[in-house]
Amino acid sequence: MATLTKKIQMVDLKGQYLKIKEEVDKGIAEVIESTAFINGPAVKEFQADFEKYLDVKHVIPCANGTDALQIAMMALGLKPGDEVITADFTYVATAEVIGLLGLTPVLVDVYPDTFTIDVAAIEKAITPKTKAIVPVHLFGQCAEMEAIMELANKHKLYVIEDVAQAIGADYTFANGTRQKAGTIGTIGCTSFFPSKNLGCYGDGGAMYTNDEEIAKKLKMISHHGQSVQYVHDVLGVNSRLDTMQAAILKVKLKHLDEYAAARNKVAAHYDKAFAGHPNMKIPVRVKNSDHVFHQYTLQLVNTDRTKLREYLAERNIPSMIYYPIPLHKQNAFKSEGSFPVTEQLCDTVFSLPIHTEMEEDTLQYITDNVLSFFN
């Protein structure tokens, strides 16, 4: 079995920074020198670069991914009592903003293999009060967007894509057309939290859309509801991406596809080591989507997950559970209904370290020790 002396992390932000240190430090220094800390040139430059990368007409930066979701729902004019359908198996922020706005979160189950929202479950949940669907592109790949958009168009519903974990992933439609995650629905919302595939060194987020009028509303709401300074047309919030974070993101965006390739290399190593193992199910790819592997999440079979995590921790290998409790069982979102897949996943999912700086000896050490647990 391989041995290892260096520290293993779920995400190695320091190692990633050191590779782009010169560019990042230069960008930060320019912001400090200019003292344009809010809405400085780097914000507009990053916005333009991100629009080009996504091939989308409008990117509206904001303070974080949760704000992005909230502002999106405000811009679409959703009112208290309106129903918004989203996945039960996701991070709390997706449903949190629905509740904060007085809307009604309608939780539905996910697919057992890809972890993405179940389209048939969405269709069953649609009522006359339904106004929007929020598909979550979980762990790095897109939900079944072609089928979701067909449903949305049929029932005249908005689609707000939660792209926090899948920045850079492509979705391919049946006709061969490819679009970036977040550019397919009405609005895409993302987070630049440091551990994301495109992460800054603090908080940050963005919304994107091809609709001119919606873009104007998103920008207005994120700036205190004003389109002209001191003229407030609607109730808004204060949600800005600060200039220093934009300068960092501008550098890291140039490396985003390279980062995705590095993550896929890690995932391929894990896949090869664990494929066919009776106690582990490796991640299944959505047929029409790239996978950028924000997380590498296995499903355990007939395994004591706690003991496995303890065994690995003793050998200085971190692991995580995304997510241990379904939203419908959280006190804030208690919901009636049947969610057998989500409940099973919460009991069996298990995520291993994955990031852009992982080396072969580290991967071998991790896989050797995971496999040794079962021997």
Task: Describe the overall structure.
It is built from 13 helices and 14 strands. Helix 5 (93-100) links the parallel strand 2 and strand 3 (104-108). The chain has 2 domains: 16-253, Type I PLP-dependent aspartate aminotransferase-like (Major domain) (Aspartate Aminotransferase, domain 2), CATH 3.40.640; 256-373, Alpha-Beta Complex (Aspartate Aminotransferase, domain 1). The mean pLDDT is 96. Helix 4 (65-75) crosses helix 5 and helix 4 crosses helix 8 (212-222). The chain is α/β, with parallel strands linked by helices and 375 residues long. It is 39% helix and 15% strand. The two termini are 13 Å apart. The longest helix has 19 residues, at 256-274. It has a 7-stranded mixed sheet with strand order 1-9-8-5-4-2-3, sandwiched between helices.
- Compute the number of helices: 13
What is the molecular shape? globular
Tell how many strands the DSSP assignment holds.
14
Distance between the termini: 13 Å
CATH H-level superfamily of the largest domain: Type I PLP-dependent aspartate aminotransferase-like (Major domain)
Structural class designation: alpha/beta
**Which CATH architecture of the largest domain?**
3-Layer(aba) Sandwich
Q: What is the percentage of strand-forming residues?
A: 15-25%
Q: Mind telling me the C-alpha Rg? A: 21 Å
| CATH class wording of the largest domain | Alpha Beta
Mean pLDDT: 96
Largest sheet: 7 strands, mixed
